[in-house]
Amino acid sequence: MKQIITNTIAILDRAERRKWTALILMDIVMSVLDIVFLALLLFIIQTYTGPAHESRFAFLLSWLPDHSSVLLLVFFFFSALRILPGS
Question: What's the rounded Cα separation, in Å, for the pair 36 and 15?
């Protein structure tokens, strides 16, 4: 695998190497964002399915006027749609 990567880098010129590096970095950023949004999705699921008085993250939801509203879900899905074109 290391030999394949070395050979690939060796045949690229300077502009192609920059573009290749940028694509790899963007791929890493998108992967991290995917993990973050999965964690947020688990948090949202726990918030709506778990008991309200036993939530460890109740202080994060103090901005919601009604804890049974779908405002948190709407915020999550609109945030997730923003990164969808990059996938």
Answer: 32
Quote the distance between the C-alpha of residue 71 and its chain's center.
19
CA distances from 76 to 9, 18, 25, 33, 34 (A): 39, 33, 24, 13, 13
pLDDT band, very low/low/confident/very high, at 65 (cuts 50, 70, 90): low
**CA triplet 48, 51, 56: central angle to 5 degrees?**
90
One-letter amino acid identity for 8? T
pTM exceeding 0.85: no
Give the start-to-end residue ranges of the domains of the chain: 27-86
- Banded model confidence at residue 61, pLDDT cuts 50, 70, 90: low
Contact 79, 43 (CB under 8 A): no
Characterise 7 by phi-psi region: left (phi > 0), alpha (psi -120 to 50), beta (else): alpha
